[in-house]
Design goal:
This protein is mainly beta and 171 residues long. The protein is built from one helix and ten strands. The strands form two sheets. The chain has a five-stranded mixed sheet with strand order 4-7-2-1-9, with no helix packed on it. A hairpin with a 2-residue loop joins strand 5 (96-104) and strand 6. 27% of the residues are buried.
């Protein structure tokens, strides 16, 4: 009789756990890019605060370590069915920066150059209309080339792609 009661209680506990109607916890967000080891440079995408269901501000940022980046050219690739780009702008306070939101299907290109290293890290700002949840956009930011303020090119092995969407800029 003892064993029947113990089995019955165990089964009730299993059934109660199986009937838990709570939704599973969402996947953790990517807070900020990890620090760069050694000399390197990468582009990455940050979702800025203040998003609505129809408008989200994304910023493409350039992160470098131990390099005085004064030139770059890169691209942002994404699922063409995930976002619609409403507006794309680039800052002009510390050099010349350009953005082409119509570079191809699911692609945006950006570039910048300055006579000295850039003082800011914003390459472009995008206002987008999400057509799917942004975590399904499959963002990949890649630098094709980068140059230092002394005129030398950054080695291709030091140009690191960044996948995903971050919620804050790198420290």
């Amino acid at each position: 009789m003892k064993y029947r009661n113990a089995i019955a209680l165990s089964m009730l506990a299993v059934l109660a756990a199986a009937c838990d109607d709570e939704k599973p916890a969402p996947a953790p967000a990517l807070l900020a890019p990890t620090p760069i080891d050694g000399q390197g440079v990468r582009a990455y995408v940050v979702q800025e605060p203040g998003a609505t269901a129809d408008r989200v501000t994304l910023t493409i940022r350039i992160q470098s370590k131990d390099l005085g980046v004064a030139a770059y050219q890169g691209r942002l690739e994404f699922d063409k069915d995930a976002i619609e780009i409403i507006e794309a702008t680039s800052p002009s306070d510390d050099g010349t920066r350009l953005v082409n939101p119509n570079a191809g299907v699911g692609m945006l290109k950006f570039a910048g150059f300055a006579t000295e290293k850039f003082t800011g890290n914003t390459a472009a700002t995008l206002i987008v209309h999400p057509l799917k949840p942004l975590d399904q956009a499959n963002f990949v930011a890649t630098l094709d080339v980068a140059g230092e303020s002394n005129g030398s090119a950054v080695q291709a092995a030091r140009l690191m792609p960044a996948r995903g969407l971050f919620l804050s800029a790198a420290p």
